[in-house]
Amino acid sequence: MTTTASSVAGRLVLHPGDYHVTDQSITLTTLLGSCVAVCLYDPVRRVLGMNHFLLANRRYAKDMPVMASEAGRYGIHAMELLVNKLLAKGGQRRHLKAKAFGGGNVLGRSCDEQDNFLCVGAVNVRFVREFLQNDRIPLVSADLGGNFGRQIHFTSTDFSVYMRKIPTSQSAHLVEEERLYWKRSLEEHAHDTQQVELW
What we know:
Layout: E1 6-8, E2 11-14, E3 19-22, E4 27-32, E5 36-42, E6 47-51, E7 60-61, H1 70-88, E8 97-102, E9 117-118, H2 120-134, E10 139-144, E11 148-155, E12 161-167, H3 172-194
Parallel strand pairs: 2-4, 8-10
Antiparallel strand pairs: 1-2, 3-6, 4-11, 5-6, 5-8, 7-9, 11-12
Helix pairs in contact: 1-2
């Protein structure tokens, strides 16, 4: 995961592929379409963090376990970076709580109930729920799925998340940014797969 986040007066803006963990007074902000963001925090040690990621997969079968897939392994890496960094900052696993957002169907992928394949956003939503359940991290609130983007602000004062829905008609820039990120992720995934050598 890259760290291209930009900071403005107590506010840090995360872009696709970013994550950030801190024990300082701050508001973490991001724009989400098909991507998901997990806001993770330890309210006792007062440490918080957020990531912004998208699972790289073109088509995903509904009956396929996300966690066992290549896309799931990418998501696990994204989540473990966040969790481990938060623990290294003084957080304790038994105190961790999560809030999750995003996974909207804004990239124009098929989400037809008759199709056996999930759209990009739906795969991300399923992954986040499965990961948190498997890691026994309580998901205390969430706004996932739908056909719209979201802008979220995660504040360190009381760990509240403020969310504004963005209609797809008003999120052309967001959709293009995520489409490029998704394409880049697929290309990197294909390159990594080609580099594998069996012994």
